[in-house]
Write a structure and sequence with these properties.
- 66% of the residues lie in helices and 0% in strands.
- The chain is built from 9 helices and no strands.
- Helix 2 packs parallel to helix 4 (56-66) and helix 6 (91-99) crosses helix 7.
- It is globular.
- Residues 14-145 form the ENTH domain.
């Protein structure tokens, strides 16, 4: 089991002295420990997204700042924390990240210094592209496809033809970006990538369901014409 490094402890102490509870929680969720962010830190950040006196831009930007690290562990965990908040946090956070011109700019990220750095850097680049696409989908459609109502009276099953024609390609693009993550079983070798994989797996189930319901609706409309 790995433990927080001296650097992690110093940064956390600095945030404690400055009184920034959000920055401290983000720091603790994105330590150099080779494990997923701890639930208690993620739960606190989710709670923050629901507090009206909390600045969502400050929270999101603090997470984004952690992706400027040279450490694949810190950057990967910052992406995981952001994804977790996009899934379970207040929609205000999703609205903010979708409003940004750029979310993550990690296409050239490479950690040459750490064990597993080369391999994990590949997945960081792919993961960041997916989160960018997830934010873009929300920006274009004003809805999170992983959270919409499903079933016979759900959003995709009751959508009109014109909107379906615009919406289905957006879902397809998000699915394509998700499926590009594509690790094999040997590459799921640590708690960090495993945590990311589980979040992506949950998104994939919901995205496939939304897409399938849209296709069923479209086929039904064509059949009835």
């Amino acid at each position: 089991m790995s433990w927080p490094t001296l650097t992690d402890r110093i940064v956390a102490a600095q945030h404690s002295m400055s009184g920034s509870a959000i920055s401290k929680a983000v720091c603790k969720a994105t330590t150099h420990e080779v494990s997923g962010p701890k639930k208690k830190h993620l739960d606190y950040l989710i709670h923050c997204t629901n507090e009206l006196n909390v600045s969502i831009p400050h929270l999101a930007d603090t997470l984004l700042e952690r992706t400027a690290s040279n450490s694949w562990i810190v950057v990967f965990k910052a992406l995981i924390a952001t994804h977790h908040l996009m899934m379970y946090g207040n929609e205000r956070l999703m609205q903010y990240v979708a409003s940004r011109n750029t979310l993550f700019n990690l296409n050239n990220f490479l950690d040459k210094a750490a064990l597993q750095g080369y391999n994990m850097s590949t997945f960081i680049r792919r993961y960041s592209r997916y989160l960018n696409e997830k934010a873009m989908s929300f920006r274009l459609a004003a809805v999170d496809f992983t959270k919409m109502k499903r079933g016979a009276d759900g959003v995709m099953r009751t959508m009109n033809t014109d909107k379906l024609i615009k919406t289905l390609p957006i879902i397809q693009n998000q699915l394509d970006a998700l499926l590009d993550f594509q690790p094999n079983s040997n590459e799921l070798s640590n708690g960090v990538i495993n945590t990311a994989f589980m979040l992506l797996f949950k998104d994939s189930i919901r995205l496939f369901a939304a897409y399938n319901e849209g296709v069923i609706n479209m086929l039904g409309k064509n059949y009835s014409q």
